[in-house]
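Narrative summary of target 7.
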Amino acid sequence: MLIAIVDYGAGNLKSVQHAAEHVGLQPLVTDDADVIGVADGVILPGVGAAADTMLNLEHRHLVSVVKDVIARGRPFFGVCMGLQALFTLSEEGGAHRCLDILPGTVRRFPGGLSIPHMGWNQVRQVRAHPFFQGIPDNANFYFVHSYYVDPRDRQVVAGETDYGLAFPSVVIRDNVLATQFHPEKSGRNGLRLYANFGRIVAGSRRGVPAAVAS
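Modeled conformation, tokenized:
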């Protein structure tokens, strides 16, 4: 089972790789579009700014393959900036086009808050999904971000977190799963998410939809 971690120069590649390996997966960190295109599952990690992320993806000719694997129904896991990049537009540093997989805008937290939102915070599970298997509601995960996603379709919101406002911290649509927090920095529950993603990928290979994989 091949799980590709998309290498576009993000700073948290190794920590994501180690977390996935810790739960028994055998991920491959790669910027080879051909390899990513045939992977059974794909992880897009990320830290930093939306404009740099998109620029690096474009320079490595990875935008089209990311869109293609999602369109073909391969399980896809976006982490932090990997979540934000899925949306239409980011307001970070102006207005920047993103992948436009999920309609919506990435917005800065309102004034009066300590920015970035950094540290442990609870994730309230808005709807049940195999991605949350074995993880209690309101479990704590580790966040580092200054912007949050504002989806046009609220049905994609699977988890919420409160920081000045209730913002989406887990987004799920069909084969696309994404977290605003960093599971690789979130202890046992974060590792559980990587293990659950692995089960979803394995189920997908057997023809089991992500929504019912276990």
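The two ends are 16 Å apart (CA to CA).
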